[in-house]
Amino acid sequence: MARLIYLMGPSGSGKDSLLARLRADNRIRPLVAHRYITRPANAGGENHIALSEAEFLRRRASKLFALDWQAHGHYYALGIEIDLWLLQGIDVVVNGSRGHLPQALNRYGTQLLPVCLLVSPEILRQRLMQRGRESTAQIEQRLTRAADYQQALPAGCHLLDNNGDLEQTFDALLADYL
């Protein structure tokens, strides 16, 4: 049975880098699903499909999303194409939301493999500062949320350390979960 690898982690933990690395490796069978987000495509960060709020709501009303949620002033979704890929026996990796993990577990049950990406506060601060997308106050807010995330990891979440080199994390993901 194909699995839905539901990757979670605080902003700056390296989810987008890890997903980009997975997409770039043609030896790997799992597909990485794009998220649909009501945020401009050039906003930086993840490779996503940008939708207006009106288009997002039309697609949701047409039941074109497998999962959807709101966070940080935007709508997010994963398209129903992931269900087709899973039915074909293809593992799928998604950038998931910890806050909406119960919704994903309800829909996918034992087919879902939650993976929590971990990074130390020091490394996280450094990464957030290097990417230059947030103010100092916003970085502090993200660090506070990240600390809360690390204190309340979802039950049953498989842990993946991303304090080191991206290739180490990539190799660990392949060895342990794919």
Automatic annotation (TrEMBL):
Enzyme Commission number(s) from the entry: 2.7.4.23
Pathway the protein contributes to: Metabolic intermediate biosynthesis; 5-phospho-alpha-D-ribose 1-diphosphate biosynthesis; 5-phospho-alpha-D-ribose 1-diphosphate from D-ribose 5-phosphate (route II): step 3/3
A single GO cellular-component term from the record reads: cytosol
- Keywords attached to this entry: ATP-binding, Kinase, Nucleotide-binding, Transferase
- Reactions mediated catalytically: alpha-D-ribose 1,5-bisphosphate + ATP = 5-phospho-alpha-D-ribose 1-diphosphate + ADP
Indicate which residues the UniProt annotation says bind ATP.
9-16
UniProt key word Ion transport: no
Q: Tell me, what is an example of a GO biological process annotation in this record? A: 5-phosphoribose 1-diphosphate biosynthetic process
Extract the GO molecular function terms from the UniProt entry: ATP binding; ribose 1,5-bisphosphate phosphokinase activity
SUPFAM superfamilies, A to Z: P-loop containing nucleoside triphosphate hydrolases
Q: What class of enzyme is it?
A: transferase
Q: Which residues form the Guanylate kinase/L-type calcium channel beta subunit domain?
A: 1-177
Q: Tell me the protein family, please.
A: Belongs to the ribose 1,5-bisphosphokinase family.
Please give the NCBIfam families that the UniProt record associates with this protein.
phosphon_PhnN, PRK10078.1
Q: Its biological function? A: Catalyzes the phosphorylation of ribose 1,5-bisphosphate to 5-phospho-D-ribosyl alpha-1-diphosphate (PRPP).
The protein's name in its UniProt record = Ribose 1,5-bisphosphate phosphokinase PhnN
The top of its lineage is:
Bacteria, Pseudomonadati, Pseudomonadota, Gammaproteobacteria, Enterobacterales
